[in-house]
Design brief:
Elements (H helix, E strand, L loop, with lengths): L10 E4 L2 E7 L19 E5 L1 E2 L7 H5 L3 E9 L8 E6 L2 E2 L1 E6 L2 E7 L5 E4 L9 E9 L10 E5 L5 E5 L8 E2 L3 E6 L4 E11 L2 E10 L5 E8 L5 E6 L2 E7 L12 E9 L2 E10 L4 E4 L2 E4 L2 E2 L2 E5 L13 H13 L4 E3 L7 H10 L2 E5 L7 H4 L18 H18 L5 E8 L8 H15 L5 E5 L17 E4 L11 H19 L3 E5 L18 H17 L3 E7 L29 H13 L3
This protein binds (2S,3S,4S,5R)-3,4,5-trihydroxy-6-oxo-oxane-2-carboxylic acid.
The site of (2S,3S,4S,5R)-3,4,5-trihydroxy-6-oxo-oxane-2-carboxylic acid has 10 residues, from loops.
Length: 596
């Protein structure tokens, strides 16, 4: 799905701001047609933003079900004859959109954009009422999965098998936009290079192909044309190409113009970078050069905003990533906002792009995370309906991010249960689907500690191994000497058995800023440093290791649990982005590792 833009033939109106807001306590908003008039009550809510940390009423925070958002929208008077769309960048986890009384879209999956063509329902120059019902429920068929518990006193509680807080709201921007009837609907660009010549393959789909003439022009950063072609699919060469590189995100514009009978109908510019990605033996190659990942598993998470996007916070986070010498990140545990992805493309930040398939694991769920036990791949847990949603999540993610040079690897799940029989029939079709959708990028998933080399039943299906390990934290707590031996033994086993490039996608220790000890005492800043040092010594001794992503970039909010004190404290930075001792240690380690 293309991200809308302003162009010679398209226009966008941003609908962010303060919207009317109501909590649907009785689950009656849809049946009572709340969209047909002003929402009940007197609350407002910010868009973008999470609603959970804003109100003094704890019941709003804990509500399981629908939150409603509403505002008036003025359609620009110049949009006569155009198609008019409403686009919601994310409604977590399900959004139902109404234009006046009419339902125009329904979408499941809390971290993906969706849109509706509302042309016949609105009039340029006039107002309409836009209502969005956002449902925060997680069930077994959703990604991520969850379960709703009905308590004896009638309350409903949301269980889920991941630790980060189940924030809800319209977390990213909402747009009204116009596009012409005959328009570019999709574009796919893949790249290669030989010497200093870039090879660019493209294919464009147009809404109405009858007599449509497609022209593409490639412009460099300065706006000079460097290549051109005609037809809805083909290839062009860029002489003297500037490659997209880690740390230097050079982007070209592909200006796609659609004409009919000599009249320009649509102009759409798709950005792209020229680079290659490949796995060769135990190496991960970007532009033919071995790449070593330094960085973090992240979260979209801030005080007050929850998972709401803010440009200021985004820029601060990326400045800190640069400061600490991180060259990459994983979008743990869901696709991030398109603004973040655009930033990575522009600035050469390497991305492991992850679906929202976190918590497909009833084995851990009964253990450290709390919640109900039972087998993972059972009817009512992770079953065919979950797999169908998961496939859709992969289709949407690849569809949204396929043209991004920053994305070098797909992560189709985080820590699923893969030590049991049901895992292979569940994952094999998902790996095939991902490869079919995008043959140009390697595919991986993130392996949990309970499915080590001898026990994991799916790792051979993937190109790259991604491991989350907590020796010295969840096991062998406070005993770094034993932890070091265990970690090394396990990594060597992966190396011998699989000989695949391996990234440590999570390792970290909860750390309370300001707490110190001369001993190896968990929760202190000193322990965080000693813990990270230990992992780094081991990584440097095991050949297959091609990257280290610390868990986590910053402290983040979680659901309540005895293992969490006001959230997860494994951040290198606090939740308000102040460095802990581990941050300075990482800055030095990564400077050395990257030869900076
Ligand atoms: C994990 C999960 C991550 C948790 C982390 C932790 O393995 O992937 O979502 O936050 O452990 O700190 O427990």
């Amino acid at each position: 799905m293309l991200r809308p833009q302003n162009s010679a033939t398209r226009e966008m109106v941003n609908l962010d701001g303060t919207w009317r807001f109501a909590v649907d306590w009785g689950h009656e908003g849809l049946s009572d047609n709340w969209q047909s008039g002003p929402l009940p009550g007197r609350l407002d809510a910010p868009v973008p933003g999470s609603v959970n940390d804003l109100y003094h009423d704890e019941k709003i925070r804990d509500h399981v079900g629908y939150y409603w958002f509403q505002r008036e929208v003025q359609v620009p008077r110049g949009w006569n004859g155009e198609r008019i769309f409403v686009r919601v960048e994310s409604a977590t986890h399900e959004g139902t959109v109404f234009v006046n009384d009419t339902k125009v879209a329904e979408h499941t999956g809390g971290y993906m954009p969706f849109e509706a063509d509302i042309t016949g329902l609105v009039t340029p120059g006039e107002n309409f009422r836009l209502s969005i019902a956002v449902n925060n429920e997680l069930v077994n068929s959703s990604i991520p999965p969850g379960e709703i518990i009905e308590l004896e006193d009638g309350r409903r509680q949301q269980e889920y098998k991941h630790d980060f807080y189940n924030y809800s709201g319209l977390h990213r921007s909402v747009w009204l936009y116009s596009a012409p009837e005959v328009r570019v609907e999709d574009a796919t660009i893949t790249t290669d290079f030989a010497g200093d010549t870039g090879h660019v393959n493209y294919s464009v789909s147009v809404t109405d192909t009858a007599d449509a003439d497609v022209q593409v022009r490639v412009l460099d950063k300065a706006g000079s044309q460097v290549a051109e072609a005609s037809g809805d699919a083909g290839s062009v060469e860029i002489p003297g190409v500037t490659l997209w590189q880690p740390g230097a995100g050079y982007l070209y514009d592909m200006v796609i113009e659609v004409s009919q009978g000599g009249d320009l109908k649509d102009s759409f510019t798709q950005k792209f970078g020229v680079r290659t990605v490949a796995v060769e033996g135990k190496q991960f190659l970007i532009n033919g050069e071995p790449f070593y990942f330094t960085g973090f598993g992240m979260h979209e998470d801030h005080e007050t905003l929850g998972k709401g996007h803010s440009d200021a916070h985004m820029i601060q986070d990326f400045q800190l990533l640069e400061w600490i010498n991180a060259n990459s990140l994983r979008t743990s545990h869901y696709p991030y906002s398109e603004d973040i992805m655009d930033y990575c493309d522009r600035h050469g930040v390497v991305v492991i792009d992850e679906t929202a398939a976190v918590g497909l694991n009833w084995a851990i769920a009964g253990g450290i995370m709390g919640g109900t036990a039972g087998g993972t791949y059972e009817k009512g847990h992770v079953d065919d309906s979950t797999q169908a949603t998961h496939k859709e999540a992969i289709r949407e993610l690849v569809g949204r991010d396929k043209n991004r040079p920053s994305v070098v690897l797909w992560s189709i799940a985080n820590e699923p249960d893969t030590a049991v029989d049901g895992a292979r029939p569940y994952f094999e079709p998902l790996v095939e689907l991902t490869r079919e959708l995008d043959p140009s990028r390697p595919v991986g998933f993130v392996n949990v500690m309970f499915a080590p080399a001898g026990a994991c039943t799916v790792s051979d299906l993937f190109d790259v191994l991604m491991l989350n390990r907590y020796y010295g934290w969840y096991v062998q707590t406070g005993d770094l000497r034993t932890a070091e031996a265990s970690l090394e033994k396990e990594l060597r086993q992966w190396d011998e058995q699989y000989a695949k490039p391996t990234i440590m996608t999570e390792y970290g220790a909860d750390t309370v800023a300001g707490m110190h000890s001369i001993y190896d005492q968990p929760f202190t800043e000193d322990y965080q440093v000693a813990f990270l040092d230990m992992y780094h010594r081991v990584f440097d001794r095991v050949e297959c290791m091609i990257g280290e992503h610390v868990w986590n970039f910053a402290d983040f909010q979680t659901k309540y649990g005895y293992a969490r004190v006001d959230g997860n404290k494994k951040g290198a930075f606090t939740r308000d982005r102040r460095p802990k001792a581990g941050a300075r240690a990482l800055k030095q380690r990564w400077a050395e590792k990257l030869g900076r």
